[in-house]
Hints:
CATH class of the largest domain: Alpha Beta
Shape: elongated
Largest sheet: 7 strands, mixed
CATH superfamily of the largest domain: Alanine racemase
Bound molecules: pyridoxal-5'-phosphate
Structural class: alpha/beta
Number of domains: 2
CATH topology of the largest domain: TIM Barrel
Amino acid sequence: MEMYRHTFAEINLDHLAHNIRLLQSSFPQTPFLCPMVKANAYGHGDVQLARFLESLGVKHLGVCLIEEGLLLRNFGVKAEILVFRGFDREGAEKILQYQMTPVVSTWEHIEHLEAAADQPVNIHLKFDTGMNRLGFRPEEAQKIFDRLWQNKKIRLKALVTHLYNGDDALDTQGQSAEQLRQLHAVSQIFKPFNIFCHALNSAGILNLLSLKQKPLPENHPLLLQNWGLRPGLMIYGYNPLEDKSVCQLKPVMTFKSQVATYRRVKAGETVSYGATWKAQRDSVIAVVPVGYADGFHRILSNKASLLFAGHRVPIAGTICMDYLMLDVTDVVGTQDLKKFKDQEVIMFGYGAGGSFLSADEIGTLAQSITWEMLTSVGERVPRVYTGVDARFIHDEVGGE
Length: 400
Ligand SMILES: Cc1ncc(COP(=O)(O)O)c(C=O)c1O
């Protein structure tokens, strides 16, 4: 891979494998384990990760766009690919041509598939149980059953819903519990199809895991049936719940760069656009070649501290399109700057000497969420794969 600027996202495949194996061993009986690799696998590189996930025994993958699924197929991904976004007639044809599984959420979707299919097509059916975004209303269940029962072109395989507040899934009176009860009730109508249901995202899955570690309560909605799993964030190593103790996930991405140059500034001088940072003492400023065009949000200007030589150092001044500056005075002290030539800087992830800066923390400072921090990492930032199987990735996908 050509890289003249040493700013990249290091993707640790051993950590991904750890997170996946944790799911596989915790839920050996699940009817459906479908890691979400939409949005370029949450910024980690979808083709590379999909192929690696297949090598770990993953049989189903979730994307949003038909285009995302096409890319995976074109790179030889064989797993079942679920397409969650809606589609028109043309989209239906592509889905069929590339043997993907549509998640159907409107009557029009059914019509498009019937028109496009010349042999039976497997579908998953989405119900809107409270997110108010996509899916049929539970009240429509019987009507859809009648439409699909003995339908020659459409084979219903599963029912789907999406939790909009999975954090509360332990609360039997909570919003998730209500959503799960609704989908369970709908699934009773569709029993003759021999379907399964999937509803749990990372928050739901981690709550279920914590429930299974205690004496099981009776009739908890999380235990109403053997729910299928659609983990996103957690396979990338982050736990969205407040309680992080349920299991040890390993963050997969380290977003890193290398200091391009240093500036010594005198007390009273300012740094970067708008002069928002003024040196209170004679200071050493590290210029780091990463900016908001790389997905490191400008709102973090003068707010976040990054890892420099394993130490937290504050961002000095406004983040530019291609650069940010760090006040490294406390780390460098009076030492010769040559000692810090090409020093590594971590925007989030693992740094020198066992140091770690969480994308959760950076997300909070950016008034954002971990999902957005990961998916924001820009297209021009190369992804570099590490871990025992990294060679497989580079060889197969031509990354290096
Ligand atoms: C339909 C669907 N299922 C599962 C997920 C995974 O969610 P999470 O990343 O919170 O695990 C998403 C993510 O947005 C989603 O849209």
